[in-house]
């Protein structure tokens, strides 16, 4: 799923709403700049890896293996963003950020990594491409915002490309989960049956099905929230440009 | 000379009665002669904070009218917004005014401007708790009798061969019956109401968890505790003691509020040994509640119960810390040794 629309730094919000918050201190800002630069670089590596593998193979099948390790590393690294919110150096909600990051991490590890049979699916490519483009733009957006030098192009890209990338990513994710279902049912992956000493049971197959269903109420809400954000941010950005 | 009055402005009847008396006798303090008040009537306008549109204009409002009375008047103009649903503020972004605040004591001129916020549908506390507690009571019993479509058809209306399953049903039901009785006869609630959305959320939590843990305990494939009767009996003892303790604390807290004054008092241990926990913690009712659920967890040896106990403990710890800090702020001589919920630890 696409990452939260709220910016990592004051200047991102100054375009929309005057914030009374103090914002991160100098040390925190330096750390955040480094973090965002590293993440931008990481996702660029994944992007380049995809392109090179495609050119080498001549087909878009089975590209997952060429970027498996950096994908896992950098997507898991995003867990730090929950910490940033919790500590307060980033003015986002811990719950919202946590939810978004965990859903990505869930898809990376609990579905794609765990069910090896889906790694050849084309749906993987669908969401990996969506994630890669989104994250490169998002992390460079944060980097430039922190340095108080945000090119309009990046802001535009961040608040516009999601219109295509978000549904693309969701489609890829749903298709991947769906592809994993028969294998989960057959092997009883991550499932616990009765009877047992702890009197507990868990059916991963049912859980994955519920996760898929949960996209129905959640996706439109997030999507329209992003559309509203777009109106606010790009509208005030236009006025800002005109006043120059 | 009218005697000094200590009136609890608990409801609108008391408020209007109080105002009538004040009109007749004047506002008197202890020993002061009653003054003849020359009445300057106030005007009250109520605005929408976003549009600044005037929703209501009240003239000839008595200067010693309370916010509660004004809310009543506003309700007459807008029947759908009953008083407990109204939040009146002096400033659109300011604090909500309390119902017992008096108009002339507020920083307003003779024309007072208030901003109105709709708090949404409200439900009285008693109704809230009845819903929240009756649900788990009946849901658990439902699973206990194993109606068809919950478990496999051949198990419909059968009963478990294990006595611990029946014991667990008795304990769980006792716990919620006790809570219902306390809600009706013991507790006195400070705020009048709760927003509807919160109740839906709370009910989903309580009812959902009750269904989840009842499903496993009453399941045909339920496994009784590993250490057999010894485990069950110790757990039952813990559960019973904690239920008694919890009830004792509720009674003690209720007696604190008993004499009608609205001021908070420090709770102290009484002759009842269960209340001696007050020596060590600010909120022994939460301590006992956590203990009772721990007992139930050990008795049933069921992971969902353990999870429910853990979540409840976390929530109660948050509440206990809040209450503890309020006590410390309000009372300079608050006992040092007391911790919020676990003696010496938490």
Q: Topology of this structure?
A:
The complex is a heterodimer of chains A (244) and B (346).
Chain A lengths: L9 H5 L11 H32 L6 H14 L2 H8 L6 H20 L8 H25 L5 H9 L1 H26 L16 H40 L1
Helix pairs in contact in A: 2-3, 2-6, 3-5, 4-5, 6-7, 6-8, 7-9, 8-9
Chain B lengths: L11 H14 L16 E6 L6 E8 L5 H11 L8 E4 L21 E8 L3 E3 H20 L18 H24 L6 E3 H22 L10 H29 L27 H17 L2 H28 L16
Parallel strand pairs in B: 1-4
Antiparallel strand pairs in B: 1-2, 3-4, 5-6
Subcellular location (chain A): Endoplasmic reticulum membrane; Membrane
GO molecular function (chain A): very-long-chain (3R)-3-hydroxyacyl-CoA dehydratase activity
Main location (chain A): endoplasmic reticulum
In short:
Chain A: Pfam families: PTPLA. Chain A: One of its GO terms (biological process) is fatty acid elongation. The complex is a heterodimer of chains A (244) and B (346). Chain A is 73% helix and 0% strand.
Overview of this structure, please?
By secondary structure, chain A is mainly α. In chain A, 73% of the residues lie in helices and 0% in strands. Chain A is built from 9 helices and no strands. Chain A has helices at 10-14, 26-57, 64-77, 80-87, 94-113, 122-146, 152-160, 162-187, 204-243. In chain A, helix 3 (64-77) packs antiparallel against helix 5 and helix 4 packs antiparallel against helix 5. The longest helix of chain A has 40 residues, at 204-243. The model of chain A is unreliable at 2-21 (pLDDT under 50). Chain B has 346 residues and is an alpha+beta fold. Chain B has helices at residues 12-25, 67-77, 125-144, 163-186, 196-217, 228-256, 284-300, 303-330; strands spanning 42-47, 54-61, 86-89, 111-118, 122-124, 193-195. In chain B, the strands form 2 sheets. A 4-stranded mixed beta sheet of chain B has the order 2-1-4-3, covered by helices on one side. In chain B, strand 1 and strand 2 form a beta hairpin. In chain B, helix 3 (125-144) packs parallel to helix 5 (196-217), helix 6 (228-256) runs antiparallel to helix 7 and helix 7 (284-300) runs antiparallel to helix 8. Chain B is elongated. Residues 1-5 and 29-36 of chain B have low confidence and may be disordered. Chains A and B meet through loops of A and loops of B.
């Amino acid at each position: 799923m696409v990452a939260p629309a709220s910016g990592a730094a004051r200047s991102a919000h100054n375009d929309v709403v005057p914030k009374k918050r103090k914002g991160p201190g100098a040390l925190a800002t330096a750390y955040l700049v480094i973090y965002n630069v590293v993440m931008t670089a990481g996702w660029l590596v994944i992007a380049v890896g995809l392109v090179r593998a495609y050119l080498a193979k001549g087909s878009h099948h089975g590209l997952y293996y060429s970027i498996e390790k950096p994908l896992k590393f950098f997507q898991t690294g995003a867990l730090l963003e929950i910490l940033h919110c919790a500590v307060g150096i980033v003015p986002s909600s811990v719950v919202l950020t946590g939810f978004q990051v965990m859903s990505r991490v869930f898809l990376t590890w609990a579905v794609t990594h765990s069910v090896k049979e889906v790694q050849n699916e084309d749906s993987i490519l669908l969401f990996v491409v969506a994630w890669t483009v989104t994250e490169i733009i998002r992390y460079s957006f944060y980097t430039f915002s922190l340095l108080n030098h945000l090119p309009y192009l990046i802001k535009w890209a961040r608040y516009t490309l999601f219109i295509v990338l978000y549904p693309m990513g969701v489609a890829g994710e749903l298709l991947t989960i769906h592809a994993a279902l028969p294998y989960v049912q057959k092997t009883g992956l991550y499932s616990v049956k009765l009877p047992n000493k702890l009197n507990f049971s868990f059916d991963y197959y049912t859980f994955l099905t519920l996760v898929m269903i949960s996209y129905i109420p959640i996706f439109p809400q997030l999507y329209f929230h992003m559309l509203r954000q777009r109106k606010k941010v790009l509208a005030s950005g236009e006025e800002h440009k005109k006043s120059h | 000379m009218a005697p000094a009055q200590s009136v609890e402005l608990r409801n609108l009847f008391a408020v209007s009665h109080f105002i009538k008396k004040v009109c007749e006798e004047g506002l008197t303090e202890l020993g002061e002669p009653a003054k003849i008040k020359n009445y300057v009537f106030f005007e009250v306008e109520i605005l929408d904070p976003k549009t600044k549109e005037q929703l209501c204009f009240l003239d000839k409002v008595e200067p010693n009218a309370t916010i509660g009375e004004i809310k009543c008047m506003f309700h007459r103009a807008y029947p759908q917004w009953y008083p407990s649903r109204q939040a009146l503020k002096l400033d659109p972004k300011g604090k909500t005014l309390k119902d017992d605040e008096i108009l002339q004591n507020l920083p307003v001129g003779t024309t007072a401007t208030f901003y109105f916020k709709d708090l949404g549908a409200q439900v009285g506390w008693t109704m809230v708790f009845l819903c929240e507690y009756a649900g788990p009571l009946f849901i658990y019993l439902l699973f206990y009798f194993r109606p068809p479509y919950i478990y496999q058809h051949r198990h419909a209306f059968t009963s478990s061969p294990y006595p611990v399953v029946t014991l667990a049903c008795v304990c769980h039901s006792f716990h919620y019956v006790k809570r219902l009785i306390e809600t009706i006869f013991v507790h006195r609630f400070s705020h009048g109401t709760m927003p509807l959305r919160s109740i839906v959320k709370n009910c989903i939590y309580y009812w959902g968890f009750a269904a989840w843990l009842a499903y496993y305990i009453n399941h045909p494939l339920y496994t009784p505790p590993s250490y057999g009767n010894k485990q069950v009996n110790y757990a039952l003892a813990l559960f019973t003691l904690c239920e008694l303790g919890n009830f004792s604390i509720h009674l003690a807290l209720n007696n604190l509020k008993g004499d009608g004054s609205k001021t908070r008092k420090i709770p102290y241990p009484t002759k009842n040994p269960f209340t001696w926990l007050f020596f060590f913690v600010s909120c022994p009712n939460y301590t006992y509640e956590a203990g009772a659920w721990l007992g139930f967890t050990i008795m049933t040896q069921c992971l969902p119960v353990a999870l429910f106990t853990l979540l409840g403990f976390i929530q109660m710890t948050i509440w206990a810390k809040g209450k503890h800090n309020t006590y410390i702020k309000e009372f300079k001589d608050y006992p040092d040794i007391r911790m919020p919920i676990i003696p010496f630890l938490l």
